[in-house]
Amino acid sequence: xxxNILLLSMKICFFLLLVSFIQVSAHVYSQxxxxxxxxxxNADRIFDKIQKESxxxxxxxxDDIRRLGKVNLKVKDASLPAILDSILSDGMTxxxxxxxxxxxxxxxxxxxxxxxxxxVTDSAGAPLVGVTIKVKGENKGVVTDAGGRFTLVxxxxxxxxxxxxxxxxxxxxxxxxxxxxxxxxxxxxxxxQLVVVGYGTQKRADVTDAITTISPQEFKSIPSTDVAQxxxxxxxxxxxxxxxxxxxxxxxxxxxGQNSISANTSPLIVLDGVPYSGDINSIxxxxxxxxSVLKGPSATAIYGTRGSNGVILITTxxxxxxxxxxxxxxxxxxxxxxHELKPSSPGQYLDKWKWYQLETNVPQNQLTPVPNxxxxxEYLNYKAGKTVDWLKAVSQQPYITDHNLSISGxxxxxxxxxxxxxxxxxxxxxxxxxxxxxxxxxxxxxxTAYLKVGTNLSYESxxxxxxxxxxLMAEEMSPFGTLxxxxxxxxxxxxxxxxxYTNPLLPLYLNRISRYKRLDGRGYAxxxxxxxxxGLHFLKGLQYHLNASYSYDPSLNATYQGRAAGSxxxxxxxxxxxxxxxxxIENILSYQRDIGANHIDFTGLYSAQKxxxxxxxAAASGxxxxxxxxxxxxxxxxxxAGSYADSxxxxxxxxxxxxxxxxxxxxxxxxxxxGYSAFGAHTSKYGLFPSIGVGWNISNENFMNNAR
Length: 708
Prior knowledge:
- With 708 residues, this protein is mostly beta strands.
- It is built from twelve helices and 33 strands.
- It is globular and about 105 Å long.
């Protein structure tokens, strides 16, 4: 990630240099001035200081900055040009642009290199995301963005190496050109690869719908707590939006836009062939073998009502033949505010209060320096010169750490993959924490030549325990408030006698647990009748696949707000428990046959599924002390309780026919019929979802031979 940021800085730097300047500009577009002193520091540390205190943004290469060595600088009320003139040595130049962007570079690098920009597409003109573009013979490169675009600073005689999974690699000579349009063609081996399409697989060359497959190599270098974050920017039409920075909360996912105003718009998640009702955040990214994103109507129609928002098919890893392989991976990272809010300083707060009084016609002899003067907390702290940085008070150093251990292997008849994960994330606001533990076991066995069985077992535990500081309240507090009482506890009303605003750190005194668990079990059996006996060879291509799965998702949430946490009812306690159960049985019949140049593929499905939900909640208030917390609600003076249960069933049939002629002319017919118990009482319980898809692989036509 850091390398990509560096390369992006280089691109912007040299592009602006080439088009706008050689000589130093004397224009100054900001009147900001600086006072500081540094001894023997790198120049980029000074630039970071200036960025934090102003609207200036610097662009440079670290190689150029390192040439400056250690810098000694002491300035008072100095302008930026004066500072840069003092720091930069001969052969270095800079320009301050109208938007306060400051570009720094060596004149030597300007004369030797050029900026190359362009795009990478497939043969149909669709942009390719994540294509690697490297300078041959150098450790320098970039990847294309969501639009397939790239920008790279290279020598004018450089050769670019372009590579992308599933496509033929290319080498392109720059030859002084600044704009390049590169077209990649699918590799022959890729066209023959099988892709997961739902209830089966197809040759990539025979797929008629929009399907994108992502391998873990494409996102394994990006530390993330969930699959959705790792997919961001990898699939055209897949929109990943991070709505907040709360640890453990998954971003929202949309495939090809929002399909409804009020209904659920999230795609269906299918894990190892079974619809997954849990949070995608609970899936360990290290367990994933590949992901297929189904975006078109033919692909999603096979899942009926649940596939209208697109489908994400996730396949987990299995063992590979050989000796047992033990693998460990782990990382640790920290963070900071991307855009730190800067509230009014104490002086600005005083000025604002003064002008408010003048605007509301308060007489001059009645003006006060702060609200609630005299006698209030603000007045006492104002007189004593005490201030509080509330944003700093509610913030902490965030971090994330993840550790994965797995063992896998296979013999001629059995394969296995067992893994465990521990992940912990601490947010930038105090009290926001997330811990995930997971265990997975995938076992497959060939019992006979005609019968294969397997199981996928997994357990996940998500923990969000702890009280959480209130960032919104911290943004509204007076800088002259009182953070702590004399005994070191948090002051409930920092701006007393003002009672509207409570201490934003008070929620840290809450005794709170929030825990979610998920237990999944799946078993399958695949029967190939033609392999039972020699006389059944006429059944070649026919398979029967039985899937059975069960999931159990319990959750527990409890909170106790004691007197120290601001309870006005002598303690408030509540506790809730819920569990979801889900069982599914699928009968899948498939048949494949090649007749000359014709290929026929049939898939039929009959499935039944049931969901059940139960929840219970209780609350109490008025405790004689805070010792029992939520562990004895019966001790409360006031009590309440409630419960809820619900269930629904789904009965489905599906048929799909794929036909291709010479892998050139393609046809897909799909129809699914869903019976759903939650449909209205006076309407049909069944709905039919048909689709048709056609395709033409023009590259397989004879007249295209000379165009390859």
